Structures are given as structure tokens and as C-alpha cells.
Amino acid sequence: MITPELIEAITVVFGPTARSIEGELVDSDFTHLESTMVFAGSPPRKSIALLRENNRQLYRYAVLPSPKTPRWMVPIGDAGASFASTQIYFPHKWAPKTLKALLAGAIKIGCGSWLRKILVASKSVPLLEKMVRDVTGERHIRFALSLGRHPAVRKLTVQAMRPDGNILGYIKLPLTDVANERVQNEAKILERLWKFPKLRPHIPRLLFAGEWNGRYALFQSPLGGEVGPVSFRDLHKRFLATLRECHSVEKSGQVLVESIGTKWRLAASELSSECRDIGQEALRRSGAILQGKGILYNVAHGDFAPWNTRVDHNELRLFDWESATWEGPSSWDIFHFRVQTTSAFNERETYLPFDLPPTEQASFMLYLLSCICQYLVEKNPKEVNLRQEYLRRFLNGDEMANASWGSVTL
After folding, report:
1. What is this structure's pTM?
2. Which residues pair with residue 101 across a beta bridge?
3. Domain span at residue 306?
4. Is residue 232 included in any domain, yes or no?
5. What's the confidence (pLDDT) of residue 98?
6. Nearest to 72 by CA among 123, 146, 165
7. What distance in Å separates the CA atoms of residue 397 and residue 287, rounded to the nearest whole number?
8. In 283-400, which ranges are E strands?
């Protein structure tokens, strides 16, 4: 069985509309000559011969974990490209890291026969390959695909490579309206940030951004280095300081309270009465604390977390700028890093900044409210509930849940 999500991804990359084929081919299957055919497993030899007679180019992929639940597509045939395809996924937790290592090892020594495969038969060169050729000048290109998980913000991420596995870059192809807005936002932010030479070694270079084949596409250079650490270190501070040099401004604290208050009221209909009450109390307290106070704003990444970082020569590199804003509260990236790492790796702990100045405590409450609004848009109830619980405990002064922020300096 091949899912509609998998067919959609193949259609976007190969075009025109892909269709799933089962069993042995017959001449009538070629009525729609331009269509892209997708086979689960290996079709019979007669079908392979018929495909070649009809000038179909054949592409074999391993689908992980399976064609029924597709998350990744890894090209089969070129050992270098197959092995490099594992770079599209950088897990931090022990279990997925181990599984990835086993997969990479199996591919490296040619023992991937157990992988569930599909065969894609295309009438011509894939549409996406034509675009990469135009941008890079490369003639021989392989793709690894990552299919998004969250329906509301789903996008297709494609790793473009040479057959030897040398990575040319990453392409983002939004599949929903919300994802389209975010990918376009990332392109605009990267274009502005590239004007600051000091920041260029730390961010992807924009290779292409614009309309492509009836949809928006973003093509950016890869970032080298090792996967980033899960603890907040000096290299994170240095990067955020460099980002602050690009643009910073002080605004009235009431501007932030009013902005988040507007978002909160718009989201009220989707919230429980308890969550609405917690939010209103957080707005009240924040407004009182920030009355007549200023808040520093600067360029904010918006999803500052270990899985979006690489480290090379003790310098931080950062990708996935979809949630970035040119003017965001300067402390929010640090808040986000600590909340994300706690929820992902230390689920029994809760970081609540009772030891920070009152203005930063108010900013933290507003950060949590903003997150709840964002995750409502993404239809991610798990993260909504998590931020609601953080906010409830913070408002209740649950210092028993607090852990030191250590070296984090705002």
C-alpha cells in the first residue's frame, strides 16, 4: 500500500501527477503517457521491460519506516548518496540515534535488502532535478526526501546530492498555506541576514527562493559540522550576541503585552476555560510588571533548539529560520532553548526562571502565551498542554519545579 502523502511527495518532485500501480503492467497502463508511475516493491521483469520500452527512467527508493507510514525516502543505487541521505535526520535521543546508526551501517556495507522499497518510473527528468541543475550547474543529482509530520504546517524537505553523496543543499516545498507563509518568511530573513558578513559563516546561503512549478520553493546551502549540544553554552551566547549586532531596539513593555493580548483573545475560542483564565492572569501580571518598563528586541530565530544547530570549530551554525522575526524579545530564544531541551530530554524537570529580574519573568509568561497561540495554529495539542502546564506552575510559584539557569545570561 502506498499512501496519498507519499504519492503527493513524488508528484511534487517528479511531476506530473503520480499514480500507484499494482501487479503486472499492460499496454493500457500507458494511456496517460506523461504520468509518473509508482510501484511498491519490485514489479515483475516483464513490467520493467515494458517501462523501458516506453522510455521510462527508473528510480528506486527505500521508504522509512515503510510505504504505509512514510517519513523518509532514501535513494537506492549509489552507495555514497544512500549513505549521505542519513544526514537529513539528526536525532538527539538515544533510541533514534541508535536506529539511525544501524541504518547508516547497513547501507554502508550494502546490507539494506530488508528495507521496504518503491520504484518510481518517470517519463522525463524530474522537475525538481531541472531546477537544481539550473541553480547549481550539476548534471547528476540524487534526492533524499523528508515528509513533514504535522498536517497544518506540512512541507516536503529535499536533500539534493551528487551520486557520491556530496550535499548540494536543501529544498523546502510547502504543502499547506501556513507552511507556505513560514517558508517565505525564512527566505526573507535569510536574505536580510546575509547582508551582515559577520553572520554569514553561521547561516545557510540562499540559492533560490521564489515560485517554482506553481508553488513556492526555497533552496539553501547545507551547513557543515556536528550536531549541536543539548546544553546552553558559551557558543550559544556568542551566536546570539552576533545576531543582536544585526539589529536591536528597545520598546515599551506595554507594546509586548498588548501584542500578545491580541493574539490570545483571537485564540480564546479554541482554549479551555482553565487555559483562558491562566492566560488572562499572566497578561494581568505581565502588564503590571512591565508598566513603564522597556524590553530589548532584536533578530530572533524563533525555534532556537539543539536540533536546528550544528557546531564547527567551536562555532554555532543555525538553520530552519521559518519562525524567525526581525524584532523579537531578546530573551525569547534562550527561553525557547531551555524549555525545548527540558521537555525533550529532562521530562521530569521544569525550568522556571524565578531567579531572573521581574521584567524577564514577565517576558517569560508572555513567551509561553505566544507559544500556545503558535501551537494552536500548528494543531499541536501536546505542545499547547505543555506550555499551559509551565505557565500554571509559574503563576503558582512552584519553585520546587525550578532548576538553576546556570550560565544563561540574558
Report:
1. 0.90
2. none
3. 227-401
4. yes
5. 65
6. 146
7. 18
8. 294-300, 309-312, 315-318, 325-329
Into how many domains does the chain fold? 2
Looking at the structure, tell me whether residues 70 and 90 fall in a common domain: yes
Residue that terminates a domain, selected from 181, 200, 222: 222
Sequence-separated contacts (24+) of 278-285 with Cβ below 8 Å = 278/388, 278/391, 278/392, 278/395, 279/369, 279/372, 279/391, 281/395, 282/365, 282/366, 282/368, 282/369, 282/391, 282/395, 283/257, 283/366, 283/369, 285/362, 285/365, 285/395
- Say yes or no: 231 and 205 in one domain: no
Given phi > 0 = left and psi -120 to 50 = alpha, else beta, which region is 112? alpha
Is residue 210 within a helix (H) or strand (E), and if so which, with residue range?
strand 206-212
| Cα–Cα–Cα angle for 214, 218, 220, rounded to 5 degrees | 155
**Any bridge partners for residue 70, and if so which?**
65
Same domain, 263 and 380: yes
Place of cell 541543475: 133
Query: Can you give the CATH number for the domain in which 369 is found?
Result: 3.90.1200.10
Element (H, E) at 97: helix 94-108
Residue type, 14: F
What is the distance between the alpha carbons of residues 209 and 213, in angstroms, rounded to a whole number? 12
Are residues 21 and 111 located together in one domain of the fold?
A: yes
CB atoms within 10 A of CB 195: 9
Q: What is the pLDDT of residues 228-242, one digit of tens each?
A: 999 999 999 999 999
Does residue 313 belong to any structural domain of this protein?
Answer: yes
Q: Do the domain assignments include residue 60?
A: yes
Q: Are residues 244 and 307 in the same domain?
A: yes
Residue 47: all three cell numbers together: 513490467
Query: Is residue 304 a contact partner of residue 337, using CB atoms and an 8 Å limit?
Result: yes
Measured distance CA(54)–CA(56) in Å, rounded: 6
Please report whether residue 255 resides in a domain.
yes
Is residue 150 very low, low, confident or very high in pLDDT (cuts 50, 70, 90)? Answer: confident
Q: pLDDT digit string (tens) for 289-348?
A: 999 999 999 999 999 999 999 999 999 999 999 999 999 999 999 999 999 998 888 766
* CA 13 to chain centroid: 18
Residues 6+ apart with CB under 8 A from 366: 256, 257, 260, 282, 283, 286, 329
User: 149-158, 176-185, 232-241, 362-371 — which is least confidently predicted?
Assistant: 149-158
Q: Are 307 and 246 found together in one domain?
A: yes
Measuring CA to CA, which residue among 384, 397, 391 is closest to residue 278?
A: 391
